[in-house]
Amino acid sequence: MIQRIVARTGSGLPSRGMRPASSLQMNLPLCSPLRPTPTARFPPSNTLRATCSVSGSTKKNKVIVISGPTGAGKSRLALELAKVLDGEIVSADSVQVYRGLDVGSAKPSAWDRNEVPHHLIDILHPSDDYSAGQFFEDARRATEDVVGRGRVPVVAGGTGLYLRWYIYGKPDVPKASFEIAHEVCAELVELQNNKQWDAAVDLVVKAGDPNARFLPTNNWYRLRRSLEIIRSSGMPPSAFGVPYDSFRRHLDSRASHTSVVEHLPDANISLNPAKDLDYDFVCFFLTSPRIDLYRSIDLRCEDMLMETEGLLSEASWLLDIGLQPNMNSATRAIGYRQAMEYLLSCREQGGRSTPEEFHAFLSEFQKASRNFAKRQITWFRNELIYHWLDASRPFEEVINFICDAYHDQTGRLVVPDSLKMKKDTNGRQETYELKSYRAQVKLFCRDQDCNHVMNWIRSTQRR
To answer: Are residues 168 and 256 in the same domain?
Structure first.
């Protein structure tokens, strides 16, 4: 028997526990700043066991996956689930892997991490790159470690590609030898140092990967990896099959040979689309009505900037160690890129800024965060393995449902209507509200509300 969650004060799923702004008596979906606490990466192993034994009557180990858009409360939900189920959390966040990037990534607090073991947090320096392939190996190894201790893996995060590869597997692309990696680095390093992105793309296209033209600008890691694959195999990355694509084709084939679509997560009877995967994944996507989510995100952005030792201080540190906006994985992260660009402009002005410039930066930060949440929702809308849950529902109901789902043995999981979140917008009114949405500033309403930020910039950003 699992311990049931008793009712708590207030309704709705609580989010991360950052300090509430003094002017607002409410719980904000944010996380407290904490100083980086480096943890060692998982030691290398000779073999990475990617599957569990499923022969005979042996059952696959269950893994809970909690995802959702930024600001939806997935980390808090994962934390409470881990407490109830005696679990450990594996972070699937592409920014929380970096030491020192705490406030902007809404990293779990030191208190939370003492209560429940967390994996894949603070494992890299911000100058390092990190990829979905590296995450697959690290997260699968962490999962096996958790299972080996007899505990429940709870994977939580909103990085869609990381989770897709984690669940379905990564492409079997060759790993570059040291010699090839060194050769590729030598080919691209001068172009990167001179910021000649277009010339570098042309080089990789001529080498055999026309899709390099569609890479995000300045994503040097992916460009370098593409050239390594070409040099190692003679083929571009697109030549290697992606397990998720095979899964979708297989699922579509099954659907075309049956008169029902009961194998989809929202159906009343499930033919469990995860039965051919390495683990028994129980996946949930947590989100709120879009307008409510946007308001929460906007307030969260403001709160990250209220303390000068928060996001702005972390972005300043990135600049001080020689990184530039949009240079690598860490500096492309939403919040950090905008903050670094803003602080660079302040430094160019001799450590000065105006409230108007600060508000323009805040607006850009909020807009980028909302757009990111929209992209996350779009991405996971096409992921059939996820059950969508309404984050505005009472917390104890969501927890108890997921716990029941974890212990279910039938494979016929049905989300009750009271907890189900629709994947699409609800009619013309909501569509209109989304199109006409404008952020409402809560904490920086007046110019004097920015005074402490202006003073901090004057005292720290003169160069």
So the answer is: yes
